[in-house]
Design a protein that fits this description.
With 271 residues, this protein is an alpha+beta fold. The protein has two domains: 20-122 and 222-250, no CATH class; 128-216, Ubiquitin-activating enzyme E1, FCCH domain (Elongation Factor Tu (Ef-tu), domain 3), CATH 2.40.30.180. Helices cover 42% and strands 12% of the residues. The protein has seven helices and six strands. The protein has helices spanning 15-23, 41-71, 78-97, 100-106, 108-120, 192-197, 221-247, and strands spanning 131-138, 143-146, 157-161, 176-180, 185-189, 211-216. Strands 1-2-5-4-3-6 form a six-stranded antiparallel barrel. Strand 1 (131-138) and strand 2 (143-146) form a beta hairpin. Helix 2 packs antiparallel against helix 3 (78-97), helix 3 packs antiparallel against helix 4 (100-106) and helix 4 runs antiparallel to helix 7. The longest helix has 31 residues, at 41-71. It is elongated and about 75 Å long. It starts with 14 loop residues before the first helix and ends in a 24-residue tail after the last helix. 18% of the residues are buried.
């Protein structure tokens, strides 16, 4: 009997190979390279589920950032918040209803991101999560005391405002660089090199208005090119997502095990 065992002589599958097939490249779980016309419904379901899970992460962050700002009375990011809610809704319709309209609407995400790169550069949108209030300025040590620890590192780019709250000689239009001291205390430098050398700007206390410090994310040219390539690949993949949603009603319902009945409602198969 042992000579008829089909498992005899088969190479055991390495653990890394098993997880690669499960999460990266597998005809059943991740059928990204199978033409849309050859997909089965269960394959399309899994591919759309993974895409919707990917889509709701940035949309959810936009909504969370807007809610956080709105709770503090800042409604300047209302458009971003509403757009995030719309993307979340389209992901739901795409997953549960396989809606072609939802698939088409979600194309707007990479398109708008490319437009943002072209018009506003690669700066992160003006979100509340990138801001912190300066609660005290020490003229003697040129130290800023922050309302909370943002875990920013020395060398991060910063802008400050409003103008009436700025200590001299700071300007609202310039970017300064953080010198992190403790969890809630920092200094500022004119350049990133001076920040790492600990050369702080001599500050003179400004007005009594609340001073806001905002982090500016600055990317190198290689990072910018990589971001554009990733967004273009995202846009290209969106064409496949629309094609799947359009073809879904006509896809085969044969299951993973090849049984044509296992995707139908319970009951005896037809004659």
């Amino acid at each position: 009997m042992s000579g008829n065992n089909p498992q005899r002589g088969r190479r055991p599958q390495a653990s890394w190979e098993k997880y690669v097939k499960k999460y990266v490249w597998d005809d059943d779980s991740t059928p990204y390279f199978i033409p849309v016309r050859k997909l089965k419904r269960y394959q399309a379901d899994k591919e759309l589920l993974l895409y919707c899970a990917f889509l709701i992460i940035p949309a959810g962050l936009l909504v969370a950032a807007f809610i956080s700002a709105a709770l503090n009375g800042d409604y300047s990011n209302l458009a971003l918040g509403l757009y995030g809610i719309a993307v979340l809704a389209s992901a739901g319709f795409l997953h549960f209803r396989k809606s072609i309209s939802a698939a088409l609407f979600s194309i707007s995400a990479p398109v708008l991101l490319l437009l943002h790169f072209g018009i506003n550069g690669f700066e992160v949108p003006d979100l509340n999560i990138n801001k912190v209030t300066v609660v005290a300025i020490d003229d003697d040590t040129d130290t800023l005391t922050l309302a909370k620890d943002k875990r920013w590192k020395t060398g991060y780019g910063m802008t400050l405002g409003p103008v009436e709250a700025l200590p001299r000689p700071l300007s609202k239009e310039n970017i300064y660089y953080l010198i992190r001291q403790t969890g809630k205390t920092s200094q500022l430098a004119q350049t990133r090199e001076e920040a790492h050398l600990g050369k702080a700007i001599n500050l003179v206390r400004g007005g009594d208005h609340p001073l806001i410090m905002q982090r500016i994310v600055q990317l190198h040219i290689v990072e910018k090119v990589a971001m554009v390539i990733i967004v273009l690949l995202w846009l290209r993949y969106k064409i496949r997502v629309v094609a799947i949603a359009r073809a879904y009603p006509n896809l085969s319902q044969i299951g993973k095990d090849g049984n044509p009945w296992n995707k139908l409602t319970p009951g005896p198969p037809p004659a």
